[in-house]
Design brief:
The protein is mainly alpha-helical. It has one domain. Helix content is 40%, strand content 0%.
């Protein structure tokens, strides 16, 4: 008689998270090789390739729009968040379960802040993901105080 539980439920949860991640993944941008297949001449084979001048070929888009490359993640990100009024009970403790995508972003934020030796308002280094949340909230508070 085999026992089911413990690790079996963890494996299925991990499998579900991986499937959810695949569903939420952004489809890759149009592959450059698709354009090459429709235009058999490589840049070296074109008659105007050897004249030393850089030329730009403009044509009507034939496939899906190609998104510009994202900003360098090392530069950080900038987002706008709405702030509501302060009303009622103010919660000081949260216990949150993150999905795979959120946990990866939190991990990247942690390493970005820790690698850059960022500190909290109390002069402590950012040494945990909880400190990442504290750091972000402190930054929002600082921006609110400017206005």
């Amino acid at each position: 008689m085999s026992r089911q539980g413990g690790n079996g439920s963890r494996r299925s949860r991990r499998k579900k998270e991986e499937e959810a991640e695949k569903r939420s993944a952004v489809p890759p941008a149009a592959d450059q090789s698709e354009g090459a297949a429709s235009n058999p001449q490589s840049p070296e084979d074109r008659p105007d390739a050897g004249n030393g001048e850089e030329q730009t070929e403009i044509s009507a888009p034939s496939g899906p729009a190609v998104q510009p490359p994202p900003a360098d993640p090392a530069d950080g990100v900038s987002i706008t968040l709405p702030l509501g009024r302060l009303d009622g009970y103010v919660q000081r403790h949260i216990d949150v379960r993150l999905d795979v995508r959120q946990s990866r972003i939190l991990n990247r934020l942690y390493h970005g802040l820790n690698d850059r030796d960022r500190r909290l308002a109390n002069d402590r280094h950012v040494t945990s993901t909880a400190d990442v949340i504290r750091y972000m909230l402190e930054r929002v508070a600082a921006e609110e105080e400017k206005d």
